[in-house]
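Appendix C reproduces, verbatim, an entry submitted by the partner laboratory led by Prof. M.T., so that reviewers can inspect both the input and the predicted structure.
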Amino acid sequence: MEKFEKETAVSDFVSNFVDVSKFYGLCKSCPNCGNVWSCPPYGFEPLEIWNKFSKLRMIVYKIEPLSGCEENLALLEKTKHEMLLYTYALEKKNPGSTALSAGKCSLCSECSRPKNEPCRMPDKMRYSIESLGGDVEKALRELFGIEILWEVDGKTPEYYTLCGGLLLKN
C-alpha cells in the first residue's frame, strides 16, 4: 500500500473539482442516497461546508489487491477504517478541522436514517468528498497523477484507491 497526501486551497479545489448538482445527480442512482446519514440529500448546502475552511489535505491510499473478491472487500474495509482513524488523529492535532471519509459512513451495521432516527454516532460520522460534490476521479488524476481503476468484466484492477481528507481552517 502507498499513501499520498497533498494540500490545496479549498477555493481552488471548489473551483476545479466541485460540482454539487452533477454529483448529487449521480448520488440519486445509488442505494445509499437518502438511506445513510453521510450521503445526500442533506438539510444544508454542501458548499456551506467547503466555505468554512481554507485548505484541504487530500489523503489517498493506493492498495494492491489480494487474490479473491472477498479478501479484497475485507482489505478495502480494513484500510478505509484505518484511514478514518488516521484522519480522526489529524483532527485532534488540528483544532477546528474536519475529516472527510473515503466513501459512505460504515460505522454502524445498519444506518438509522431509513427509520427517520438521528445518527447514532454524529461525533464520528464524516462526509466524503464525493458526497459534498467533489470529483475525486478528476482530482486524483490532476493533483496526484493517479487514475482510479475499476473492475471490468469481473477482472480485478491493478490497484484500488481510497481517497479521504481533512478540511483545515488555516
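Residues 36 and 111 are 6 Å apart (CA to CA). Additional entries are available on request from the coordinating office.
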